[in-house]
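Journal club side-thread
Mid-discussion, someone asked how the predicted structure for our own chain would compare to the paper's figures. Pasting it here so we can look after the session.
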Amino acid sequence: MLAIEQLPASARQFVEGLQAKTAGLETENSRLQRLLQLKDEQIKLLNFRLFGPKSEKLSSAQIPLLLAEISLSAGEVQQEAELPQEQKDHPLPKAKKPRPNHPGREKLAEHLERREEIIACCPEDCACAKCGAERPVIGYETREELACEPAKFWVRVVKREKRGSHCLEEQGVVTAPAPAQIVPKSKLSNEFVIEILAQKYHQHLPVYRQCATLAEDHGIELSRKTLTDAVLAAGGLLSAVVRAQAAELVAGAYLQADETTVPCQTPEKCRAARWSSTFKWDAGGPDRGSS
């Protein structure tokens, strides 16, 4: 075996570098060993504070199971500490408690239409592997799932008949009357306008979001003005209903209103509202004192 002094200068320098790295690794290894020992002592102290003196008899395999418990009593720690050493080293996992009298999955509404969908077996499973005969269907594995159909849109092409006269030269053409529309001569049908109203006032979906949904999901480009004009036209037709409701309310002997205030969430808007109120108070106009 050659001594280091007998090696060439380059080899000797390389070996000396390896020895220095080895010494550094050994030093780091000893430091980590001391750190692990310190951590073990801290864990033992923490277990002593959590579980009491009986924790000294517990093994390292029992501690994680005890820490996983939501609530732990001193009696349970003592019971674990008195187990045989073999069970301490290889503790059994906690079994899940069975749910007694579980009602099972809730059934879907009975009034919904049922559409059966039969999924056939693979072709290789339809024939007997022994004799090759077709295997008979003996039943089905049945389950129910709630399904839906997306909204469908189509274009209604309205063709009004035009009839001519062979004996009248002037005013001899008659045309079928146009059907009544919420928005006369509009490209929106009555049921589409009703759908817009239901989405806006029943589902609280603003018009601009309805335009975005039609464009993104269905590729239908409609301007916001077109939908807004339809909403205003429908409101004009419902004005008679509003007047009738107002007359019925006024005819009663007692009126009740919801006067819940809506506070401003933005500090800038609050300051602007206070400034506006102060300005009206100083101006002394007809709105004096109002906020």
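Post-session note: Strands lie at 162-163, 174-175.
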